Amino acid sequence: MIDPLSEVIALLRPRTVLSKIISGAGRWAVRYSDFGQPSFCTVLDGSCRLTVEGQESLTLEAGDFLLLPKTPGFTMSGFMPASAKHIDPKVSPAPTNEVRHGTPDGDPDVRLLGGSFAFDSKDADLLISLLPALVHVRGVQRLSTLVHLVRDEATAERPGRDLVLGRLVEVMLIEALRTIQGEAAPAGLLRGLGDARLAIAIREMHADPAHTWTVEQLAKKAALSRSVFFDRFTRAVGVPPMEYLLCWRMALAKDLLREQDISLAEVAERIGYSSASTFSTAFSRCVGQAPGRFARERIVED
After folding, report:
1. What is the number of helices (H) and of strands (E) in the chain?
2. What is the largest CA-CA distance in the chain?
3. Which of 109, 139, 172, 205 lies in the 20 to 30 Å Cα band around 250?
4. Is the dihedral angle over the CA atoms 130, 267, 243, 202 positive or is it negative?
């Protein structure tokens, strides 16, 4: 069976992990500016307050796991009022030792294991738009174990390190994201997959993106009327069915265009366009540049 979530994570191509221990004591607060890359953390001991731009404030407790697929600005602090120290993660050097905020001596009020990684996909923004902006999971031991495995592998120089890290991060992402499927998830792919009827239609689109799907056909697969399916899909996923299909087709097209020995006609055929010219028009409208130019720029970057 096709697993759309696994396909999205695989296309994102997570790689390169940096990790660190962070602790805080007494009066402390730090304000991180927008990072734009995915980050994660698990709380080892104690608790603290976290406020992410565009989200309600959270209290993080021991055992909590947090994932930010496109880390915006955020403030982390203790529970006593304090002026926030500004940190720009794009400029500050990656720490090699434990980072301590607030009172430097004594036991910390909170201790976290945090990290960041990168998506190697040239289409990361499009794919990330299908995922929640913030994932907060409480009491899932599997995630804490995975984070520790990631840190252990990231700090060692074992053969096959990069491959193992990539696989571990893929597993960590899937484990975190699948814990919030259904009504608990914000509008997006996860909420759609949590609806048994909509999940059938989403899997059909992923299984055969080249098929000339219509809303009527997808509604029939989901055993719903056209109008009910359209409204239910749009509310759950956040975009209408045909817009989601276009998004997925363009993600696949960008991935295929990374290959230097594939023609535009073949790319068009694989994702459901009748000709290279029809595909080029759709790609240019969606991406903002012609597929040939996109492919040439990817070759130069690589």
Report:
1. 12, 10
2. 68
3. 172
4. negative
CA-wise closest residue to 3 among 168, 170, 187, 228: 170
Query: Is 189-301 a domain of CATH 1.10.10.60?
Result: yes
Strand-pair category, 110-119 with 39-52 = antiparallel
Residue 21, H or E segment: strand 14-25
To which CATH superfamily is domain 4-178 assigned? Answer: Regulatory protein AraC (2.60.120.280)
Q: If we measure between CA atoms, which residue out of 179, 84, 166, 185 comes closest to residue 140?
A: 179
How much of the chain, in percent, has pLDDT values that exceed 70? 96
Which of these, 145, 171, 3, 140, lies nearest to 61 by C-alpha position?
140
The model's confidence at residue 260, banded by pLDDT at 50, 70 and 90, is: low
Q: Where are the domains of the chain?
A: 4-178, 189-301
